[in-house]
Structures are given as structure tokens and as C-alpha cells.
Hints:
Layout: H1 19-29, H2 38-51, E1 55-59, H3 62-73, E2 80-84, H4 90-97, E3 101-105, H5 116-125, E4 130-132, H6 143-153, E5 156-160, E6 168-169, E7 172-173, E8 182-186, E9 199-203, H7 206-216, E10 220-221, H8 230-233, E11 246-247, H9 258-268, H10 271-289, E12 295-296, E13 304-305, E14 311-315, H11 317-320, H12 324-333, H13 349-355, H14 363-371, E15 372-375, H15 383-398
Parallel strand pairs: 2-3, 2-4, 4-5, 5-8
Antiparallel strand pairs: 1-9, 6-7, 6-13, 8-9, 10-11, 12-14, 14-15
Helix pairs in contact: 1-9, 2-9, 3-4, 3-7
Amino acid sequence: MKIQSPNRFIPYGRQKISEEDIQSVVEVLRSDFITQGPAINKFEEEVAKYLNVKYAVACSSGTSALHIACLALGLKKGMNAVTSTVTFLASANCTQFVGADVVFSDVTPDTFDLSVEEFENKLQKQKIDFVIPVHLGGHSCDMEEIYDLKKKYNFKIIEDACHAFGSSYKNNKVGSCEFSDIAVFSFHPVKHITTGEGGIATTNDEELYKRLIIYRNHGMHKNADKFVNKNLAYDEKKEPNMWYYEMNEVSHNYRITDIQCALGLSQLKKIDKFVERRRKIAEYYNSRFSEINIVTTPVEKEYVKSSYHLYTLQIDFEKLGRSRNSVMKELRENKIGSQVLYIPVHLQPYYAQKYGYKQGDFPNSENYYKNCLSIPMFPDLSDVEIEYVTDKIKHLLTK
């Protein structure tokens, strides 16, 4: 039976923008502030409330959130940080921004999150200063186990939660920082909510919060208690000069705009519906694709409620007798987008040349990469499109 072609191309992920979202942005454009105004503070407050965390600092991207998290916690030259190699480049690159070393770790063979067992093996062999666990596709790492290791080995934890906004771990929202120092999120258009580009860092530590704010804005501050140049900072009455600021450490312009945060605030109102829809899509996919013997569907541990940023199949392309590239090309010809997320970072020429990593170093990660294929997953998928995607992929994998 011929499967009806959809009216549009179906990408692996995309934003869902409503008229309400558009009007929220228009209101800011007509207001007095389009950057460094009240919408940013409101967005930070609402995100912190949603995640049940004390502080949130919005910035220009998930990558910039990772960078300022490293700066705030003091990662620097002579130190190192462990992260999994199945991730986007930024999880590792943030260590390079501050002159530290990255130490890659393998992932678990089922969820493809950081292997706590391998991480502990590394802790037993060398001093580790930081760990950056990556919640791949929205599935949280086992953070309590990692936190227990922190108490024994004394390292700092930055959760790369860029895939996991709306996810839960042991009945708490990912980003509550119950088992970490800082968590970071991305609001890129393929994520759960979007600000166009944008990100946020969360923490329960007031001093870290203050440092995150400074590093977001060139390293500048107006904290009179920390002024060094007293003769410049104060007037003849010993009162702080209204215009005065200082920079004690260098940083970047990682600010976000009120325009973006207005969109984020509007999107945040719909996050629970977005996550519910993603989970229903995943449930349907699981029921259909589990029937194919060369396919493994995503695993969700009992202590996790994934928000499914990605829906990634493991496909035995060798048994299929076709290359992944040919499958992806045929899907594209049928208006279905797919993606390979991700190429293990230790295989990137920069890291291979700098640290001597090579193929075969992390078998679970490389096996994941060999077989992974992410298929359409976003809340705007209609039931008809979901069925079309499922039927077409099943047809390709069983014909």
C-alpha cells in the first residue's frame, strides 16, 4: 500500500511558535527595553521557579552557559574535567576556553549517558577536578551516584542539561541542582522551549550566582565592597560614583535580550504540554519500532522521566544490508529529516591530535555512533505525520 506523502518536510526537530509567542515579543519591541530590561529578570525568576532552584542566569546560548559555569567554579589551566564523548562539541570545548584539559569517558551501553563505573575507575587512577555529565536526549545521568563520588573524591559538577529541560530525575526537575553545583540548558529552536538562541545556568549557591552574573557581562561588576580603585570609585563624600564599575577578571558579552526572554516566558507557559506531547510521540514510536528485530528503541530508567529532546533509534545497519547514509537520503527524498547525534568528540581531529585519542578507545560510544539515527521529535508533529514517519521508516527497515 502506498503511504501518503506529507504536505511539508518533517525535520528531526523544530520550534513551535504560537500567535501568543509573537505578541509577547511585539510587546517588548514596543516597550522601553529590548535588552538588559525587566523581561530577563522575569524569565530567570520563572525558570528558577519551574525547576525549583534558587538562582538562574540567562545568557546567549547553552555554550556560553557552560563557559561561565566553568569560570564561576574556577576551572582553569592545570585542572581537568571529565565528560562523555557522546555529546555535542560544547561539552568538551568549554574546558578548552579556560585552558583546562578534558578527559573523555565512555557511556553506558543502554542509555548512553556517562558511565559512572568508568568515571570511578578514572577517579581511582588520577585526580579529577570537574565532571560534566551530559543528559543525552533528555535522559538524566544517575546524578546521585555521581554526587556520592563527589563526597569521596572532591570534584565539582556541572550538569550539561541542554537536552533535558522538563526532564525529571528521582521526582525532581533536572536543573534543581540537588546533586550538582551548576546546571546549564539551551534554548535553541530544536530544544523544548526556545528563545531563538539562548541558554541559562542554574545554581543554589549565592556566590556562584553572583559570579555567573559577572561573567555573563564582560567580567564587569558594580559591587562597592569589591572595588579596588577607591579613589576612582567614590566621590568626596565617600559615596560610590553612580557610573563606576570595575573589571577584575576578563570575560565575554554573553548577555541575552528582552526580546528573547519575552519569547522564552511565553514558551515556558507551555512546557508541560510540550513535554507531554513528546512523551506520547515516544510512546507511539516505541510500540511500533520495537517490532523490528534490528532496531533498539531508547531506554528510560525507572528513576528518570525524559523530556525526549531527541528520539534516537539504534539500527543494525550491517544486518539491514544498507548504509546509514543511503537510509537518510531515502528518508529525505520522502520529506523526512533525520540526523546523527553525535560523532564521538574524541574522534574530532583537534582532540585526537591534542590528547592522542583514537578509534577503539571508547567501545560503547563508538557502537552507539555506528548505529544511531535520530528521527523527527517535536510537539508540532501531527498524528498523521507521526504515523507517516513511522510507517515509512518501518518500510525502509523491513523491505
